Amino acid sequence: MRYLSFIAVFFLSISLFAQEAPSNQIFWKTLQLHCGKAYEGEIMTPSENDPFIGKRLVMHVVGCGEDFIHIPFFVGDDKSRTWVLTMQDGLIKLKHDHRHEDGSEDEITQYGGIASNTGMASIQYFPADQETADLIPYAANNVWWITVDDVSFTYNLRRIGSDRYFSVKFDMTKEVDSPGPAWGWEN
Question: Which range is the signal sequence, renumbered to this chain (predicted)?
Answer without folding.
Answer: 1-18
